[in-house]
Design a protein that fits this description.
Blueprint (H helix, E strand, L loop, with lengths): L8 H6 L11 H26 L1 H7 L8 H23 L6 H18 L2 H4 L6
Helix pairs in contact: 2-3, 2-4, 2-5
Length: 126
Amino acid sequence: MNGRPQIEPDAAASAPDVIGVERSEGPAVAALLAVGIGAFVLGLLTTLAEASTTIRDWLQLTDAVGPLSGKTTFAVIAWLIAWGGLHLALRERARLTTGVLVTTGVLLAAGLLGTFPVFFELFASE
């Protein structure tokens, strides 16, 4: 023998080959991008509710909470739909992180901007 341990054929066939295997980043980047989309929808709805009384009234799902109830409900729905759709579309893809991180950052920044009173009051309907 050459001093190496002998591996039985069945054990070698079932051993995972981790060298050179690329892991899919799809589910992770789908979750990140969905967060950005949800935040953007919240900022957009906040600004639109300030700009239009029709939209503000439409977003008022309950009188106790006011239009915030619709803003948050529709933002969560957008997040869930985006997450599910992106997960299905990207689940087998690898190497997506850089572009998705930039896109998510832009969407988060835009969504955050849309929730600041200094910004959305610029669009207030008089």
